[in-house]
Amino acid sequence: MDLPRSAKLGVSDQVVIHPEPGRIVIEQARPKVVLADLLAKIPRGSGLELLDYGRAVGRELP
Predict the structure, then answer these.
(1) Does 60 reside within a domain?
(2) Separation CA 18–CA 29 (nearest Å)
(3) CA distance 13 to 3
(4) Which secondary-structure segment (H or E) carries 31?
(5) Residue 26 lies in a domain
(6) Is 14 exposed, middle or buried (0-12, 13-18, 19+ CB in 10 A)?
(7) Is residue 20 part of a domain?
(8) What is the residue range of 15's domain?
(9) Is the residue at 21 inside a domain?
(10) Is the pLDDT of residue 3 over 70?
(11) Where does residue 9 rank: exposed (0-12), middle (13-18), buried (19+ CB within 10 A)?
């Protein structure tokens, strides 16, 4: 059995290793998602625009 291929891990993939009762668990590390990074990937002029939903009725931010 080819463990790295069955686990879908590559040579440069980062992993997290942690113990559990009776075994050692190796999981693929998940990258931290930062909102600013995601927003930076939206191309300018992508059709996103602000919408006016009317006046505030509660404690909304201006």
Answers:
(1) no
(2) 12
(3) 14
(4) none
(5) yes
(6) exposed
(7) yes
(8) 3-40
(9) yes
(10) no
(11) middle
Helix or strand holding residue 20 (H, E): strand 15-20
- Locate 43 and state its tokens: 């191309």
Helices of type H across 1-62: 3-6, 35-40
Residue 46 in tokens: 């992508």
Residue 44, SS3 per DSSP: coil
Closest alpha carbon to 28 in 58, 54, 3, 62: 3
* Total domains present in the chain: 1
CB distance 12 to 4 below 8 Å: no
d(CA 1, CA 13): 19
Sign of the CA dihedral with 36 first, then 40, 45, and 47 last: negative
User: Which amino acid appears at position 38 of this protein?
Assistant: L
Q: Contact, 8 vs 2, CB < 8 A?
A: no
User: What is the tens place of the pLDDT at every residue in 6-49?
Assistant: 777 778 888 999 999 999 998 888 888 899 999 899 888 777 77
